[in-house]
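Researcher: Next entry in the queue.
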Amino acid sequence: MAYGWFQWYCRFYQGRRSQDDARQIKRWLKICGPTGRWKGNLVAKCVKAKSRYNDPQVAPAVRQSLLHWGYELTEEDLKQKKKEILQGKGAYAMPRAELASVHKARGLKRPAAAM
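Model: Structure for this entry, 115 residues:
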């Protein structure tokens, strides 16, 4: 009986390798890797709320989902993704109108991609 990603990860961490490794690693990368959907979503929500990376009031359900995948947002990740969002690259869960209002509030020009 398989118990999902966590069981696979524990076994992988202990050195066990299986035919499922590539699929599980791909799932993790899509969720909280460098271009992960939910990591980007959380960063966008932090930018929108003008909050710190560790503010538990911002998107607690998203934070909990990321914790289930073994990831906790760091200040460095927030800074990196924030730059991308403010440049209009991969705005994730932030609609263009909201991105434009963030740019306006910060005195930034809207990037060409968001126009």
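Model: Residues 66 and 85 are 19 Å apart (CA to CA).
Researcher: Noted, moving on.
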